[in-house]
Design a protein that fits this description.
By secondary structure, this protein is mostly helical. About 75% of the residues lie in helices and about 0% in strands. It contains ten helices and no strands.
Length: about 210
């Protein structure tokens, strides 16, 4: 096999892109490391230099999908001063991930495979939702400690915020009852959910 003269980073990205296409057009069980190497295209030796297993490869794909959300949360919270703007930025990044074609497809894939591979669901959760929830929980606890807001259970409050953004809409998109929301629908969802949430924690705009 003749491999392209890519940089290590670009070759790793090519492998991940090939694996993503295969995972989403087939299923996790039927995709082998051989097939991923052929699709990349790289030798098996090169593939294993980057990823020890297809599970590790899927985790890297999930982590990359979640990276924008987690980075937005980290950057936003590090400079947070306006609560409403902070929550809207986090909501926007979450909604973009949640309703993106790849985000929905990966979610469907993991649900389909967790019966046979329960560790897959745990690993995906640990690399995505758990991290985002933990970061938001810390921020909400800080708001409560400031005595400006009533958030006695920061963990529940963080979960509630993300749940407002998922709502019934996410189920309908997952089940292909309707297409993912367009830009206007996303904006309305973010604004409505954030405003409703802020009222619940006693936020009053200046």
């Amino acid at each position: 096999m003749t491999e392209s003269s890519e940089t290590p980073d670009s070759k790793r990205q090519s492998i991940m892109q090939a694996a993503t296409r295969l995972f989403l057009t087939n299923n996790y069980r039927s995709v082998s490391m051989d097939k991923i190497a052929q699709a990349a295209p790289v030798s098996k030796a090169t593939l294993y230099n980057y990823f020890d297993s297809k599970t590790e490869l899927l985790m890297a794909i999930v982590a990359q999908l979640c990276a924008s959300l987690l980075q937005t949360i980290t950057q936003t919270l590090s400079t947070a001063d306006d609560v409403e703007q902070t929550l809207q930025k986090i909501a926007s990044a979450f909604v973009e991930l949640l309703y993106s074609p790849d985000g929905l497809a990966i979610y469907q894939l993991v649900i389909a495979e967790t019966h046979e591979f329960p560790e897959l669901g745990q690993m995906v959760y640990d690399n995505g939702a758990k991290l985002a929830l933990s970061q938001l929980e810390t921020y909400l606890q800080q708001l409560h400690d400031s005595e400006r807001f009533n958030i006695p259970d920061a963990h529940f409050a963080a979960d509630a915020f993300f749940s407002l953004l998922k709502s019934d809409l996410h189920c309908r998109c997952l089940f292909s009852v309707q297409p993912p929301p367009n830009a206007l629908e996303k904006t309305l969802l973010i604004e409505s959910a954030t405003a409703f949430y802020l009222r619940g924690i006693g936020y009053v705009a200046n």
